[in-house]
Structures are given as C-alpha cells and as structure tokens.
Design brief:
This protein is α+β, with helices and mostly antiparallel strands. The protein has 3 domains: 209 residues, Up-down Bundle (Multidrug efflux transporter AcrB transmembrane fold); 68 residues, Alpha-Beta Plaits, CATH 3.30.70.3400; 222 residues, no CATH class. It contains 15 helices and 20 strands. It is elongated and about 105 Å long. The two termini are 58 Å apart. About 17% of the residues have low confidence.
Amino acid sequence: MASPKSRPRDGYPGRALSLILAVAVALVAIMFATGNTKPRLGIDLAGGTSVTLKAVAPKGDPGAVNSTSMNEAVSILQQRVNGLGVSEATVQTQGSDTIVVTIPKGTDSTTIASEIGKTAKLYFRPVLAEAPSGVAVSPSPSSSGSSSASPKPSTSATGTAKPQAAAPSGGASALPSASKTQGDAVTKDLTAATASPGTAKPAASASGKPVAATPSTAAAAPPTTSLTTGTVPADLTAQFNALDCSKSAQRLNYQTADAADTVACSSDPDPTTGVYYKYALGPVAVPGTNISSASAGVSQQTGAWQVNLSFNGAGSSQFTNVTGQLATKTTPQNQFAIVLDGQVQSAPSVAAAIPGGQAQITGSFDQQSAGALANVLNFGALPLTFQQQEVVTVSPELGGSQLTAGLVSGAIGLALVILYSLLYYRGLGFVAIAGLAVSALLTYSIMALLGATIGFALNLPAVCGAIVAIGITADSFVVYFERIRDELRTGASLRPAVQRAWPKARRTILVADFVSFLAAAVLFFFTVSKVQGFAFTLGLTTLLDVVVIFLFTKPLITLLARRKFFANGHPMSGLDPKSLGVHPPIRGGRRPAAPKEA
C-alpha cells in the first residue's frame, strides 16, 4: 500500500502567496467598485468646512455656560465628528461661549451643519392630542355624542394587523384629527410591534362621520383646529389651541420638565398634505438616557435603513409598562411620541406591550441620516444648546505644492532604497522591490477605503508616516537576507539556509515591528489631531510589514531557492559563494582534536 505523499520540508509557499495576492486583488476590486479610488486629504492639504456654534444658556440660568460645560461639549462633539479619531476633524473653543468645528473637505457640510449641534435629547411621551396645523377640521364630538369614525389599524406584537377598538360612545376622549399617512416617506416610526401601516386616519365631523382633509382644503383654510375635550388640562389645552406649527417661528423646542405636560410640532411636514402636525404630550414615560445603545441598520423586513435602540434595565421595564398601558387606549391616546430635541419624529400607535427593551425608529432614513442620528444618541446629549453662527469653507493650510514636495521626497527615498537593493543584493533586490510594491498596494487601498468608512484623512504628517514605513519594510528584508547569507557562509546549501535563517530573522523582525507599533499606539492614544494621523499611518504600515514578510517575502524566497539561478549561487543572484567568502570544506580532512582539559 502506497504511503501518502509527505509534506515538503519547506512547506507550501504557493498557498501563502496566493492568499496575500487574493487579498490585494480583492481590496483593489472593492476600491474601484465603491468608487473610493483616492484617499481623503486632510485639512492642511485640501481644506474643509468650518462650523461655528454659539452656546445659549437656559432661561434663568446664565451661569450654565461655563468652562466645565464647554469642555464637556467639546468632548462630545469631538467624538461625534471624529469617530475613531483619524478623520482630522478639529473641535476648539473660541472665547467663553463659542466652539469652532473644522472638518476635512469631502464631507457633506450641509449634513454637518444640521446634525453637529443637536443636543440629542430624546424622550418617549404619550400623546394626549394630535391635529394638523393650518388645516380646518371639524370639531370633535361632544361628550354626549357618539363617534362612528373608522379606526386606523395597528400592528400587533406578532406583526399581525388588527383594527383598533372604536372609541366608546359618549367617551370624552374623542379628539380631533385629520388625514395623515402613518409610516410615510417622511415620518419616522417605532417599528416592529408599533409601526402603523400606511393608512389614512379619518377626521371625525360634528355628526360623527369621518371626513378626510384634502390638500386643497389645507391650502385654503386657516388654522382653526382646537382642542375642546376635557381629558387635557386647561393650560395645556390653551397651549395646544394657540400653537400653529405651520409658522416656522412657532416650531420651537417646547421641552419642559420630565414630569410636566408639553406641546410639540412634528419635525417634518406630511408629504401628502404638506402640513405640520402639532401634539399635546404627557409626561416623559421613558427618558433617552435609558437607551444603552443606538445603531444604524437595514430592516430585514423592508430593506430600509433604521435606527435600532436598546434600553437598559430601567428603560426596558419602563418601555414595556407604558406600551402595555397605551395599547388599552384609543386613538390618538394609544400613540407614543418619539421626541428628539423638542420635535416629534413620529407618533406611532401601540397595539400591545413591547417587551425585551428593543425598538427601532424607521422612516425616511438613508445610510447617512440613520448613522448621524445613531451617532448623536450614542455619544449623549450636549450639556448646552448651541446656535449655528456660520458655515464657511476653509482653504488649505499648506496647499498642493507642499503635498507635491512631500510626495517627491517619498519618491526619492523609495528610488534610493530600490537602487541600493539592486546594487547590493542584485537578484534578491527584486524580491525587496516586489515586497515594497505589495506593501504599497495594500497601504494605498486600505487608506482609500478607510476614508469612506471611518473618515480617515491623509494629512502631511500621515504622508511622513508612510515614508517612514518604506524604511521599516526595507529593514525587514535586510534582516532576512543577511540571515540567509550568514547560513551560506557556514557552508550550507541555499534551501536549508533559507529554512534555518527564517526562525532567527522572524524573531528579530517581530521584536522590531512590535517596538514600532507600540510607539505608534502611544502616539495615537495620547496625542490629538495631526500627530494621530502620523501614528495611525505608522501603526498600519507596521502591521502590513508583518503581513508582507510572512505571506510574501518568506514564501517567495522559498520558491526562488528551488531555482538553479539562486540555488547554484549565480553571480547576479546576490548569493554567490565567492562574493560571500564561502570556502568549501576540504574533502577527506579530519576535524581538529578537541583540546584536553588541564
């Protein structure tokens, strides 16, 4: 019986080469497929956008704007705009009440301006009343009347649509309403067990029959909607009746103490009628501080972007209890308003208690807007309210000529390394050149992709880090080549010399790269701004040096050692025994006797 083919002593170097080349090709393919073919440039090389924010003290508390609150705001804004700290965004205080945020070119300045200064105070409040602003609707039936308005359906906890129970006859909870599409292209709803289907909500006329408000009615009628029922406190009723969200001057942040009622406007107009909605809201049922995490994701059911919320222990219990209470009520008092920075993002109806402490906000999100909302919720609310003063374009600090000078310097350094490798190592020099090419390809493609994923921006110090990496990679080649030459000088043939040299060279390379990576990590975590760009690039290229030396250089030399050109020590191979001073042992000679001990 034939024995299986034994594994070669020098392994299977072709597999390692295939792996690293496949990774390189995949990265380049992703780079071109996504259109991210160039790294983002930092502020000093390409300019950017500057947003000026002015802190506004709460009424009755002018001392709230102080160094402590400003420093806290700077820290939160730094986390929001800088992510992993390598996008080169800068957040600095200016005076005692102003913060200037500068973001590299290539970021949507409009999105930055609208999102960066949000206080991100999120609350879940029960809805007491809901009505359109600027649309004439019939008054709600009196307590002695009966309502036959058809109810809007709501999704149950199992995802099955079931009709909401009609308001009891003579109930004082009947409230004015008008046609509004729930879950439309603008409204952001609490999905899963709470998202309402896209059905119109009928208005109740004086006779108790549903009457739908049309866009033409909205355009012609004055804001006559009012609240006349006795289920809402008188002072809140007056606020609700006076509020006209169709006027931008009245779309303010009416946020009150958590235990108090309030009014609010919708964050966006209804896409069908083009009108804003106003709400009378009860006390905070679940504060946003009880959200443990928020993340942007794609709904498995609809394929649309959404923000996933996870509540902590207290928030989960509160959320389950309040949704269970709301599910027993009728429209609109079975609705749960999601209030962000004083505006209602959505007011979905609830059909059943929602356990588990998980919820989703869905609606007109794309990847960018969902990520922006999750970002501000994750990093917390700003301690102060900020007013945007201006958004201006910042010109490059250094400009294209300095970038060109840096690239020319790098090219000269690379050319000198290549020339030295060819003159000193000859054939082995081409191995070094190929390794540098693979390392450069991996570095460039990763930097280009990181610019789109984590906002990495290449500034001049980062370019310097990449130039330094040329020396680090070349040094690894030198260490391995010299170890092989040392083995050849002892009289060993090339293939055994390659294998025996590797453990010694590997240990030296790993120690050197670890020291470089440790220095880069210390710089990254204990410095800011531009120095972090240098540290990040240095750390990245150091890791890639380990990958290249293990998966490319070592396997390639193992394959070349099987070729006669290198194995026989051709003068142009760089492994010529004569040039290395190798003297073959004298055949038949005896070893010298060991010296006798005294």
